[in-house]
Amino acid sequence: MQITIELPEDIGNQLQQNWQNLPQKILEAIALEAYRSGIMTTAQIQELLKFSSRWETEQFLKQYHAYLDYTEEDLEQDIQTINQVLSK
Questions:
Q1: Rounded distance, CA 28 to CA 78, Å?
Q2: 53-80 as b/e, with b when 16 or more CB fall inside 10 Å?
Q3: Of 9, 15, 49, 56, which residue is the least packed, with the fewest Cβ within 10 Å?
Q4: CB-based burial of residue 19 (10 Å sphere; 0-12 exposed, 13-18 middle, 19+ buried)?
Q5: pLDDT above 70 covers what percent of the chain?
Q6: Is the model's pLDDT at 2 over the cut of 80?
Q7: 72, part of any domain
Q8: How far is CA 4 from CA 7, 26, 88, in A?
Q9: Gap between the Cα atoms of 30 and 23, Å rounded
Q10: Would residue 4 count as lying in a domain?
Q11: CA dihedral in degrees (69, 74, 79, 84; nearest 10)?
Q12: Which domain holds residue 78?
């Protein structure tokens, strides 16, 4: 899908001067907001931004303080799952 946005000329020029690759920066902003909102997964972020690895994706998210929403309950459930797998 291709999406076109219109910016006032002066704002577009200002953004372009500060962000060399404006289309990429816009994609990154969309990816970050979608991840923070729970709309996209890390795998989808990796695909959208054409990152070569999960680690590159994680580094990108960390750089912009978009951390995984991982609760204490999630940790407890993961520990239980690991213990069940290891006990087999």
A1: 30
A2: eeeebbebbeeeebeeeeeeeeeeeeee
A3: 9
A4: middle
A5: 100
A6: yes
A7: yes
A8: 10, 11, 54
A9: 11
A10: no
A11: -130
A12: 9-86
In total, how many domains does the chain have?
1
Residue 19 maps to a domain: yes
Residues making up the chain, counted from first to last: 88
Place of tokens 């690991």: 82
Q: 54 CB contacts (<8 Å, ≥6 apart)?
A: 42, 43, 46
Flag whether 3 is in a domain: no
> Given a cut of 90, is residue 67 above it in pLDDT?
no
The answer, yes or no, to whether residue 72 has pLDDT greater than 90, is: no
Mean per-residue pLDDT for 15-34? 94
Residue 70 confidence (pLDDT) above 80: no
